[in-house]
Amino acid sequence: MQKSVVGLLLLSVLASCTSMTTITSTDPQAKIYVDGEFRGTGSATHEDKKIVGSTTNVTMKKDGCRPQNFSFSRSEEFSPGACAGGMFTLVPFLWVMSYKPSRTYEFQCEKM
Known about the structure:
By secondary structure, this protein is α+β, with helices and mostly antiparallel strands.
């Protein structure tokens, strides 16, 4: 019984460390790169386990247009799961904030 409670607690703490957001461009043909890695065209999902205050960089590119850079930080929304886990050990407090569920960036093509 005690092992299953500890296992369940550990699982909930680890799950609360992950934060996810959907990134959408106003231009459905814009290619989306997150921290330099291609994620999709027009819309992409990003998920990570970065700690509070970490910054994620987004670059949008389209042929014939100058790339546009954006960023967001893991400090947008309170995460109750991580806070509850932090009551038992301080480590989950590093993930007490999360990303907004979605964000839209306006991509305006500036010719090169």
